[in-house]
């Protein structure tokens, strides 16, 4: 293809996106669009399956049967999200094995929030309420993103996430209204998860390298700072409602902006965790690598068995 | 006989019947709880996403069944008893699950072998329990049998895949079957409560299922190119609350929150 022809295709492509048309797997797309989408969708898929681990840590210790079943179902939903997202990613011409390899080798990233430890039951409430809350704010705009398979996966993901968020808030509410020890658990969890949740919405706009291109392709509709403000404005009244205190002495309502002003985020901590030095980066990755390596013989057996069955069928046909 | 005497005897009878039913329920429901707990340890650590999701599904079904049984037992106990009191606040000796279901997830072969050996029994048990004269137990069994048939299909399919897959998988699943075989006989032991529940028309005579169980298991192992273990000595004790050393650790996890924060609502 000549440069001119490519340029022509690119123009048609950009026009389609501008018209809000969906791009489908078999459509022509610029290489950069394909790569960016593989990066983002796979990061998202990896976040779902790494995200199973901190919550999985409390399934066996959930305090009641009702909570145990709900948590188990929630973590299972995350596995389901991982599946849809890996499938969406595979439509861009990359295999699941390659995607896992990128995760296991540390080449691909996942959401840094999952590198924090879950040390009390209240963390299950805080994760649902705050982490899923921030995720929804990030993800709702993706339901109308330009790449068809991703947009459709996100519609399903978002429905389940909002259920998870309510479930998390309900755990926190129950604790906050419970005995003093329970309220203390809830406040402590909020103290530990608040700032990492704000960081989850990404570096400030000035530092964000992908924002401009992503906005053009509708992979992003608002900037990180806008999303963060939206999250804070939505969450502060919820904390007040259940009598918990946001751990930010600089937090106050700004009448003029009709929004909350908030304190300085510790970006050094953010970059430390992103670069692999958070409290649980090693544990999380090790757990995934172990599960994968210990499962090799099982996956091999399934393939070998399927081949044998296929051979048998062929022989019978002859 | 005076009216007072007669009413007091009736009361004793009702209490006896409830107590038999409660003990009978523990004998079934504790298996579902403990196996569900074991499977839920694996959530997020499966050999691939599909099996992870399937294993979690089975855990969810079993815990759902557990809740049905325990809610009924709590009702029989009366007072303020809840399903969680029964699930979380008994001592180790008071749990009546069979030893098979508490065995650890040593590797995926053990998970599948344990599941298969239990599912084969579980299907037969619930098939019969559907005819219980106790309408609540019959209803739980009717709902559960659909789930348990799916479990059996899942575990049987994996027994075949691992048995007739690669030499390594064959060896691993055979090792798991051989190790867990010693716990199969206990499935058919009858406790005093089991016998009374059968006499009352509410329980299933598990001892009568034994022949058919081993025939079905043998057929599937044969079809999976696996050996049926030859064994004279079997382990027992779970039904009397005498468990293996694994049980205490399982309960330490299970009961952690309820023991640390007594009497709180979650």
UniProtKB/TrEMBL annotation, chain A:
InterPro entries assigned to the protein according to its UniProt record, in alphabetical order: Aromatic_CoA_ox/epox (IPR052703), Ferritin-like (IPR012347), Ferritin-like_SF (IPR009078), PaaA (IPR011881), PaaA_PaaC (IPR007814)
GO biological process terms on file: phenylacetate catabolic process
GO CC, alphabetical: cytosol
GO function term, MF aspect, one: phenylacetyl-CoA 1,2-epoxidase activity
Highest taxon of the lineage: Bacteria
A Pfam cross-reference name: PaaA_PaaC
Protein name: Ring-1,2-phenylacetyl-CoA epoxidase subunit PaaA
Protein's organism: Aquimarina intermedia
Origin organism lineage: Bacteria, Pseudomonadati, Bacteroidota, Flavobacteriia, Flavobacteriales
Automatic annotation (TrEMBL), chain B:
SUPFAM superfamilies in the cross-refs: Ferritin-like
Annotated GO biological process: phenylacetate catabolic process
Signal peptide residues on this chain, from the entry's feature table: none
GO cellular component annotations of the record: cytosol
Lineage top rank: taxon: Bacteria
InterPro entries reported in the protein's UniProt record: Aromatic_CoA_ox/epox, Ferritin-like, Ferritin-like_SF, PaaA_PaaC, PaaC
Pfam family name, one: PaaA_PaaC
Protein's name according to its UniProt entry: Ring-1,2-phenylacetyl-CoA epoxidase subunit PaaC
